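This section describes the prediction task in plain terms. A model, or a person checking by hand, is given the sequence of a single protein chain and must write out its three-dimensional structure as a string of tokens. No templates, partner chains or ligands are provided. The sample shown here is typical of the held-out split.
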Amino acid sequence: MTLYRTHTCGELNINNNGEDVLLSGWINKKRNHGNLLFVDLRDTYGITQCVIDNKNNLFKKIEKIPLETVAQFQGRVVTREKDTINKELKSGEIEIKITNFKILGKTKELPLPVFSDQEYSEEIRLKYRFLDLRRSKIHENINLRSKVISFIRKEMEGFGFLEYQTPILTSSSPEGARDFLVPSRLNPGKFYALPQAPQQFKQLIMVSGFDKYFQIAPCFRDEDARADRSPGEFYQLDIEMSFVEQKDVFTVVEKLLNNIFKKFSSKKILNEKFPQITFSDSMLKYGSDKPDLRNPLEICDLTEIFSRTDVKFEIFKKLVKEGSLVRAIVTKKTKNKPRSFFDNIDRWAKEEGSNGLAYLTFENEENKISGKGPIGKFFSSDACKEIMKKSKAENGDSIFFSCGNKKDVEKLLSLARDKIARDLDLIDENIFAFCWIVDYPMYEIDEKSGQIKFSHNPFSMPQGDLNKLNLNKPLDIKAYQYDIVCNGVELSSGAIRNHIPELMYKLFAIAGYNKQSVDEKFSGMINALSYGAPPHGGIAPGIDRIIMLLAGEKNIREITMFPLNQNAQDLMMNAPSNVEDNRLKELNINIIKKK
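The expected answer:
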């Protein structure tokens, strides 16, 4: 027995019948039945029902206690009547007959209820996050997060990895997102940066002769909020390995994710051996490099169909001649869907900013295939057969077309694929569908400048025979870069690293960096690689996104203990905040107010 409790609120059961106990926790709920007052006492372990009858002189005092008061109850464990047993509670077969109580912590009037999971505004929830975290759903999410991270550490150690910590104060990176900067008092006018990721440090760990590194790493990026990304900071499982190929990284990550998702979810894993999809195939079939493989719909290219003379759909034919492409989605057995189904999809597409989605349905009448719908008359029977062959459509299926430049068509059909699948209820929510996206292009064209830039991680190793690499055709170069995706959510990017300084200079030169700029911007890395670096590679799955999938949440706020709001503000601690002038002077900083 301690000063405050003999048991927790989730511990007592029928085996404790007749025992005198002391419990402490929060008043979760009260129910006054006139002659009896029931009080649900809650702590992080569960809820125990306590009861007192109106003949007890403590009845009226306990009746007045506000919800969320921290209280201590003394009493005896008794079994409940059969018809009052609560099977949803661990302690549901017993209750505590109160003999005494004490107030341990008073409460003010609550700005939001704790005993329900009713939705409240982000401002209220984050300002009073300490109350929000008491609510059962989010409380369980945070506990889940802790258990998953603990499990990951044990698994990684079992795989032979050791955890090392990398610096939080480092140099600013010219690549990636915007840095958070920290002024240096001892070095006036200079700044540290909080790490966007431990990328360079974990590679340096490999150069230092350590073989298998991991870290539950905090990362900091000054970027706008998204549902799956918190502004300010997030955590990732940072992994790096020496003397490995791409397949070795895949083996470790597949084992780990299979073990995590089996341990913490009852949902089925679609393929325990994760399929590998090339970047180009993913963009063609799904319009995205983050495909949701629970969705059976696929996109196909039908551009060449519109060069046929027996296709009279002149709008598309004209656009194709001007360089546009046509891609389409087939929906199975939708012949008998009402016209409103198709028109709603077309209307939705226009709301997304496109010209809509043209559509037709294939029908076989008297052994003759025809297209039914607004544009069906523009396609001959032979043209319909060719479309069906290329798209693997069958009689009674429908097809939606999009025409335009590659990027716009991919974006629209990626969204349409998800929209149509949900309208047709094709997605099994009880499945986790993992896949690898591989063979990313090393470079891409910057839309604004027209210049060649790295498409992914600039420290990646190019594919192929390094002695025969054609640097004159950089857009043809593929890299050993890969993403892990689950249910349409990108969990991580990774790569086999370029550990050869001479090759790195050549690759950076293509993206506009001369040798001097590489030496200046990546001095620590390029210098270290010059002293005998092993082939190495790694990956960094996002902890937050893993927890989101396991908890079935759509917003990262629901699995983060103290998140910032959409404007990167901590409403509870009032950060960011103003700093006194003498502190700014000490840091050699002068604030210039905007007009």
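For orientation: The mean pLDDT is 94.
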